Amino acid sequence: MSDPSDKPAITLYRLQACPFCERVVRKLDAYDLSYQSRFVEPMHSDRNIVKRVSGARTVPAIVDEETGVTMSESANIVEYLDATYGGAN
Amino acid sequence: MDLGFDVVALPESNHPGVGEVAPDFTRPLVNDEYWKDVSLSSLTAENPVLLVCYPMDGAFPATYIWNELRDRDFENTFDVTVVGLSISSPYEHASFITEREIDYALFSDPQNEVAEAYDIVNTLDGMAGVSEPRPAVFLLDTDRTIQYVWVAHEWPEFPEYDAIADALATHCESV
Description:
CATH architecture of chain B: 3-Layer(aba) Sandwich
CATH superfamily of chain A: Glutaredoxin
Number of helices of chain A: 3
Radius of gyration of chain A: 13 Å
Shape of chain B: globular
Distance between the termini of chain A: 30 Å
Oligomer: heterodimer
Structural class of chain A: alpha+beta
Strand content of chain B: 25-35%
CATH superfamily of chain B: Glutaredoxin
Number of strands of chain B: 11
Number of domains of chain B: 1
CATH topology of chain B: Glutaredoxin
Helix content of chain B: 25-40%
Strand order of the largest sheet of chain A: 2-1-3-4
Shape of chain A: globular
Number of domains of chain A: 1
Order of helices and strands of chain B: EEEHEHEHEHEEEEEH
Structural class of chain B: alpha+beta
CATH class of chain B: Alpha Beta
Order of helices and strands of chain A: EHEHEEH
Number of strands of chain A: 4
Strand content of chain A: 15-25%
């Protein structure tokens, strides 16, 4: 059921109930992009994975293996998704 | 255990046995940094898996079981992935992993549906509405076929760690 080749290109680092993260989710859904969610904990000190990936401990952060882009800040991410995947819509 | 009195016997179970394919499931899998939805089959596709079903994080059997598994360090001896499964939330798993200093990832199944699929439900007396898996250990090969199984028949009862080690030595390559 989960063939590694089916692995979505986009990974979203998110915090449960974080409105900025949900903003990104809505945009991903709007463009029908498949993504996998990695949930982290509320304490910034518990977010080393996000720091290693993006350089900052903030969420949301996305990694798009399709384009090689890693990005933080929901406004930036939404802008990136619009620019990259919004053309046909 | 020899306590000098009878402990609670658990009812008969039709859990899957050796040679049968373990039911697949997808649940949040928690490691020391994050959690994401992972299927059991995606783990077995990579490696044999030792699936350890255990009482909720914080119960003393959970502490005993994972202290023992941490100290046995099977993953450093055998080509196997050790994963846990309990009804505890991802947040509780994250704390438990830190407290117990374990390197293993833990599945979170608050609805206890995996235990239902495996017929290892333990309905907890005195905790209305709460059930969890009875302690159980399944060694799965890369096709999810069960190579070894142990399921608790009493409450409490603990895995037979030496038998697990023997099963790993029989069915998994050394690393």
